[in-house]
Amino acid sequence: MPIDVDFSLPFAAGRPLPRQVERAGRRGVDWATEHRLIRPTEAAIGYFLDLRLADVSTGFCPEADGPDLDVMTDVITWTAVCDDFFDGPAGDDPRFAEAAVLALSSVTGSAGPAGVPPGVEALAAATADLWARMRAPMSPAWQARAARNWRRFLRSFLAEADARRARTVPDLAGYLALRRETMAMYVYLDAAERTGRYEVPERVLTDPSLLRLSTLQIDILAHCNDVHSLEHEEARGDTHNLVLVLEQESGRSRDEVIEEIRDRVGRLVLRFQRAADDIPSLCDRLSCDPAERAATYRHLAALTRQLRVTYDWSLATTRYTLRAASGRRPEYLQASTGRSGAVAGRAGLARTGLVPQQIGEAR
Fold first, then answer.
1. Most CB atoms closer than 10 Å: which of 37, 90, 141, 360?
2. Total Cβ atoms within 10 A of residue 51
């Protein structure tokens, strides 16, 4: 099955300490239940933990701990919840989805959440809490860029929902254009800066060489992820998948298409490595001072680390297993994210009998 396809990415990532992973696992549950995003039941929390999001947050910033690690953990939790929220009934109602995206996007403005529709209150409040902690220590320039990226990420759900409702397989160009939006790597790169307390100069980030490197990173991960998530997406009726795109365009068998994607990934990896080798000359060309150069190298390390961690996570998470490929919507989210019936925080965990220490053991 596609989940077993090995792409052999030649990238390394630091290993977080077990206590960091345990902290992130507890934190993800605590924050999500406190903000009434997931059901405070043992089954829902178990499902959430089986996603192994703590592997991602700690892998993205293995040197972080304390409140900084909490920020990255909450970013990973938030993007996962948003993904499943708009993959569910919210994404099937265009007017509601548009209103939800506008409300969540408004969080990054000076006035905070505005025009929040019923059923989005909890997610909007969680978004506001996260954004306040994300922006606090960062410069106005970073805040403006990160806000644009959050809005970009949220708007991508509308385009993705439109594609899902159309039930048509896009051509390759259309696939790539949307996939580069729906992959949240640009959000995670901003979070890496916030977690590590550094900022990459804007002239570096907007240089064509670095933009090319970021696009290659997304394309590599999108190619791999579309193979690993194929059965999951087919069962749900999603057609925005590279395997389906190439099958339609070429008329070849699935095995042949997957082998082609493996070849494509190999070529993309070589291009990524060559582009990464050019980073020192980019810093020279842009006359980066020592601090700017150090931040640029940290950005390159984050790009590379995300490749390894995201790929490894896709093989370990239950998100793409046969159980998840049944086509059923995720059942860990609150039935109504902003209405009565939600039980918050540690009190909710106590009612389930799954206290923080047991959460760590459940992993």
1. 37
2. 22
Number of H helices, E strands in the chain: 19, 0
Cβ atoms of 165 and 86 within 8 Å: the answer is no
**pLDDT tens profile 72-118:** 999 999 999 999 999 888 888 999 999 999 999 999 987 767 789 99
CB 262 within 8 A of CB 7: yes
Q: 């389906």: which residue's tokens?
A: 244
Beta-carbon neighbour count of residue 237 at 10 Å? 10
Rounded Cα–Cα distance for residues 345 and 335 (Å): 17
Query: What is the C-alpha separation between 24 and 75, in angstroms, rounded?
Result: 11
pTM of the model: 0.88
Nearest in space to 239 (alpha carbons), one of 304, 179, 191: 179
360 by Cβ neighbours in 10 Å (0-12 / 13-18 / 19+) ranks as middle
State residue 38 phi and psi, 5-degree precision: -120, 155
The pLDDT tens digits for 268-303 are: 999 999 999 999 999 999 999 999 999 999 999 999
